[in-house]
Every structure is written in C-alpha cells, then in structure tokens.
C-alpha cells in the first residue's frame, strides 16, 4: 500500500500500511495527533460532529477542491484524486477546529 502525505493544521503527516484502511479521519486526528476538538457522535455521517475541512485535487479535473468530510475514511479522503505520491501530496491538507486557535479575532 502506498503512503499518502498530507498536512493537518499545517503539520506534515504521512500514513501507510500501519494505518487500518477503515480508520476514519476523526479517529486518526483524535488518537494519533491528539487533536480532540473534533467530536464523535453517530459515526454514520448523520450528525456532523466529526466534520473537518479537506483540500485535495479533484479526481476529474485535478484542480484543488476544499470540501467538508465527516465520518470519512482516511484513505478515501486523500486517495481519491490522481497523482497521489507524485508531487501533489503537498496540496492535500486537512484542517480541524483547532486551526481556529491560531487566528486573531
Ligand atoms: S460522528 Fe456523526 S457525522 Fe461523524
């Protein structure tokens, strides 16, 4: 299984075969990165508690798109676009609620 590189709130991350293909983004950021601001409720994409923002190249056009992801499997969120592992990894990023802490209000 290829590795996928992306950033979470600006911090570089990389996942490979050590990460279960069924692992969700929210479980990854809560357990592996200790970012517990994103919550878990239904685990069925019904409540929106676990929503994060993901930016990745569109699989059809290759243009960067930012979309909300809830209950998304970590692999499908970042692997759905062409070019994985071929220089586009730097464009793949995710932001969670913790990213708001760095903004001046
Ligand atoms: S926990 Fe309900 S949508 Fe993710």
UniProtKB/TrEMBL annotation:
SUPFAM superfamilies membership: 2Fe-2S ferredoxin-like
Keywords carried by this UniProt record: 2Fe-2S, Iron, Iron-sulfur, Metal-binding, Molybdenum
UniProt keyword annotation of Cell wall biogenesis/degradation present: no
Keyword Nuclease: no
A GO molecular-function annotation: iron ion binding
2Fe-2S ferredoxin-type domain span: 18-59
InterPro entries registered for this protein in UniProt: 2Fe-2S_ferredoxin-like_sf, 2Fe-2S_ferredoxin-type, 2Fe2S_fd_BS, Ald_Oxase/xanthine_DH-like, Beta-grasp_dom_sf
PANTHER family: ALDEHYDE OXIDASE 1-RELATED, XANTHINE DEHYDROGENASE
Stated name of the protein: Xanthine dehydrogenase
Source organism of the structure: Eumeta variegata (Bagworm moth)
Gene from which this protein is expressed: hxA
């Amino acid at each position: 299984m290829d590795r996928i590189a992306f950033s979470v709130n600006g911090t570089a991350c990389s996942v490979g075969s050590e990460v279960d293909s069924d692992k969700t983004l929210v479980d990854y950021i809560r357990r592996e990165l200790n970012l517990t601001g994103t919550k878990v409720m239904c685990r069925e994409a019904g409540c929106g508690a676990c929503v994060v923002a993901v930016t990745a190249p569109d699989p059809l056009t290759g243009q960067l798109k930012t979309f909300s992801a809830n209950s998304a499997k970590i692999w499908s969120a970042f692997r759905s676009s062409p070019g994985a592992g071929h220089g586009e990894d730097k464009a793949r990023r995710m932001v969670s609620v913790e990213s708001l802490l760095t903004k001046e209000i």
